[in-house]
C-alpha cells in the first residue's frame, strides 16, 4: 500500500503539531483545540469550510491560537494549515468518523480521520492543550438504558483533563440521563451565565446544573484548580445558543421525532434480531438524525448550529486567555 509521506514530521508522541501551535504551547500562550467531525460529518460543503475558517478567525481575534485536530494519511495533526483545512472540508464524509475506539485503526491503515469529541480531547491532552471548543457533544441516546448507546465523549470526559466548551447536548439525546452519566464519571458540568443546561438549538432543557459560571475568568479558575489537584477528569462548560439565533423548540422537537421514526429508532426495533440488518446503527445514528433535522427544519437548524459554534469559539478563546494569564 503506497501513501503520501506525512507533511510534517510527527513528534515522538506520533502527533504532528503545527509550528504555530507548538510555539504558543512552548511560551504558555492561549491555545484552543477544535474538532473535525463537525466539519466532515456535521455540515455540508462549502458552509463547513466557511464556518471552520470563521471559527479559527474568531479564536485568533480573541488572543488565542486555534488548533484544529484531524488524522491525515495516518498521522494525527494538531493545527492545520489552510490547504489541509480546505481538503478536510471538501472530502467531508470520506474522512472516517474517528472516536477514541477508531484511532489505532485509522493510524495503522494510514487513513484519514475526522476526530469526534472523544478523539479530539485525547490528542489535545496528549500535546498539552487544556481547552477545546465544539458545537455539541455526544451523550446518552434516547432509550440508552436499554440499548447502552452512550457516546464515548462522556467516558473521555471522565478520564481526560480537558475543558470542553459546547452548547450542551441536542435533544436527539436523553439529556437528563446524559447529566446523570457525567456525574457518575466525575465530570464538572458548569453552565455559562445560566442555571439550566442548554439543549444546543435552544437555551433551555428543563435540567438544572449544579454549577453556574458567569465569566471567562471564573471558568479559568475552575480549570486551573482541576489541573493543580490532578483530578484527571474533564470539565464541560455549557454555553447557551445566543437568544437571537435560538431555533424554535417545537419545530426542532417535531423534526427529531420524525427522524427517529425514519431511523426506526425505538426500543423494540433496536433490540430485535433485525437490528444488525438495519442501515442506521451505531455511530451512523448521530449524523443521520442531525442531517434529517437540518432538512426537516428547512436549514434553520444549520444556521443556529453555525451561530452557536462561533459564540462558543469566542467564549473558549477568552477562557484560554484567562487561563494563560493565571498560569503566568
Ligand atoms: N452532536 C452534535 N454535532 C456533532 C456531533 C454531536 O450536535 O457534530 C458529533 C461530535 O463529533 C461528537 C460525535 O463527538 O458526533 C458523537 O457521536 P456519537 O454519538 O456516535 O458518539
Ligand atoms: Mn453511539
UniProtKB/TrEMBL annotation:
Task: Return the SUPFAM superfamilies for the record.
Answer: Indigoidine synthase A-like
**Entries under InterPro entries matching the protein:** Indigdn_synthA-like, PsuG
Look up keyword Cell wall biogenesis/degradation and say if it applies: no
User: Which keywords describe this protein according to UniProt?
Assistant: Glycosidase, Hydrolase, Lyase, Manganese, Metal-binding
GO terms (molecular function) for this protein are: metal ion binding; pseudouridylate synthase activity; RNA glycosylase activity
> What is one cellular component GO term in this UniProt entry?
peroxisome
Q: Give the top-rank taxon of the lineage listed in the UniProt record for this protein.
A: Eukaryota
Q: Is tRNA-binding among this UniProt entry's keywords?
A: no
Quick one: signal sequence residues?
none
Q: What is this protein called?
A: Pseudouridine-5'-phosphate glycosidase
Q: Which organism is it from?
A: Triticum turgidum subsp. durum (Durum wheat)
Biological classification of the source? Eukaryota, Viridiplantae, Streptophyta, Embryophyta, Tracheophyta
